[in-house]
Amino acid sequence: MKNEGGFTLIELIFGVGGIAVFIIGAIGWIINIIVIARTIDLPLTGLFVLRIAGIFIIPLGSILGIFF
Questions:
Q1: In this structure, how many other beta carbons lie within 10 angstroms of the beta carbon of residue 3?
Q2: H-type helices in 1-68, by residue range?
Q3: Alpha carbons 64 and 55: distance in angstroms, whole number
Q4: 22/29 Cα distance (integer angstroms)
Q5: Cα(61)–Cα(29) distance, rounded to whole angstroms?
Q6: Rounded Cα–Cα distance for residues 32 and 12 (Å)
Q7: Taking CA atoms, which of 3, 20, 25, 42 is between 20 and 30 Å from 52?
């Protein structure tokens, strides 16, 4: 019997999961930038400094954009 091409269930789950994590992270990073643009005139706080750092440290920016 010839081995058919394609993906196993585990490969498919990890592939779709990886794509979902990437998309959610990108959305969180964009939300972080939008929040910075909206709060640029407020006083300087620790969270604001972290959000600015999150522009350059993308995982931090995506977490801050989604959860804070």
A1: 5
A2: 9-38, 46-56, 58-67
A3: 10
A4: 11
A5: 5
A6: 30
A7: 20
Query: Token digits for 13?
Result: 């789950």
Q: Does the reported pTM lie above 0.85?
A: no
**pLDDT tens for residues 27-48?**
999 999 999 999 989 899 999 9
Question: Residue 6, by phi and psi: left (phi above 0), alpha (psi -120 to 50) or beta?
Answer: left
The position carrying tokens 């990073």 is: 29
CB-CB contact of 39 with 32 (8 Å): no
Tokens describing residue 55 = 């522009």
- What angle is formed at CA 63 by the lines to CA 62 and CA 68, rounded to 5 degrees? 115
Structure tokens at 45: 């706080």
> Crossing angle for the helix pair 46-56 and 58-67, nearest 10 degrees?
130
